[in-house]
Amino acid sequence: MYRIVTEFTNTTIASRIRGLIAGQGSLTELTARLHVDEVALRISTDELSPYPTLNVIQAIVREYGVDPTWLLTGEYESASHREALEAQTSELPRVVSKVIGRAGVDTPRQLRIVREA
């Protein structure tokens, strides 16, 4: 069961991802650049029913050098940004998982977070 956090929604995460990758190339080019599956990128950025995956979130943090807290919540946090920038690629899952954990959400393989009613 997830603890729902209103700032931490699939729609807002997908919107920030779309903003970052807009104009950066074709879907094929982006998946190659990010080293993610095309389906994962499609569902992570879908406008109607987005389900951002951890792999895509980690790839965006790695490739674009963004703060994982900002990507997930829309609020910048210098500590998590610095930690992500200093982390080795293999350490990014832990860094992103810490941000998710601080938001009070379990860390599923694929994020399925909905706005609280």
Report what the structure shows.
This protein is an all-alpha fold and 117 residues long. It contains seven helices and no strands. It is globular, with a radius of gyration of 13 Å.
What is the secondary structure topology, with strand pairs?
Elements: H1 10-21, H2 27-34, H3 38-45, H4 54-64, H5 68-73, H6 78-86, H7 92-102
Strand content: under 5%
Count of beta strands = 0
Tell me the number of helical segments per DSSP (H or I, 4 or more residues long): 7
Low-confidence stretches: 1-6, 106-117
As a whole number of angstroms, the C-alpha radius of gyration is 13 Å
Structural class: mainly alpha
User: How helix-rich are the residues, as a percent range?
Assistant: 55-70%
Please state the overall shape, judged from the principal axes of the Cα atoms. Answer: globular
- Please state the average pLDDT score: 82
Termini, distance in Å?
15 Å
Major β-sheet profile: none
Note the run of SSEs as H and E.
HHHHHHH
Write a short abstract of this structure:
The protein is mainly α.
Identify the notable features of this structure and list them briefly:
mainly alpha; 117 residues; disordered N terminus; 56% helix
